[in-house]
Amino acid sequence: MLKKLITFQKLLINSMPPININSKNTSEKMRYGLGAFAMFLMNMLIFTGNTSSSNDVTPILFPVISIWMINRMLYSDQRLFETVPVSRKYTVLNVFLLSIILIFILYIAVSIVGSAFVGILFGFLYLVYPQGFSQSPPEPAVHQIINTTKGNMLMLYILVIVIFAGVAITFIKNKKLRLTSFAGFAIIGYGLLFFLKLTMPISPITGKVEFLESFSIMPHAGTILLFVAIATIIISITSVLIGYKLYVGKSNSSKCY
């Protein structure tokens, strides 16, 4: 069973077409470029702040990249996963599983590269300015820490919703409808997050709204998390069912992405 699963996952990965950086489709490049730029601006507007770091923004990119890769795989010219005698339900479940696996692969890769870069940077700084590492941080900085567990849980739920709903959308055969659905999902999602940020309290440390910190100290953060958790479960299950329904009716001749 496990061997069959691993083999099928390899087929899915091998079905992903190589990225053609020399593509002459200018309109497609502009569309992807504008979409990426808009997402970058919204992520910076909502998630960044005085105390935020790349750890607050980078996780949002992982599901997006995973969905993009799944989309390319489903509409590639060489779909190896469709050449093996397995049920479409099995294929759909493996596609959703692959989207999660891709996120872990991206996370591990970024963590390794990031850790190596930070290690090299700190090593260089230590050689240049060793006395700076022997100084203790200011006393106020040690105690001015807010528990962001609730904010981190919210981010986890958001990522799960994005990956499941996004993968379900990739099964839409019509390209225009698929792109419109992606755009609508992004607008609704960012709109809700932006509205949520407007209702967040100011961080006592910076005097500004910091997404993770401000949400964690919201009076009704626990209630919001409960509703979001329920919504996450419902959306995840519904997305798998919708993905299956769409894939069963998907034409094998559809190759546009």
TrEMBL record:
Parts of the chain that traverse the membrane: 32-51, 57-75, 96-129, 154-172, 179-200, 220-244
Cleaved signal peptide residues: none
The entry's keywords: Membrane, Transmembrane, Transmembrane helix
Key word Membrane present: yes
Entry superkingdom: Bacteria
Protein name: ABC-2 transporter permease
Originating organism: Clostridium estertheticum subsp. estertheticum
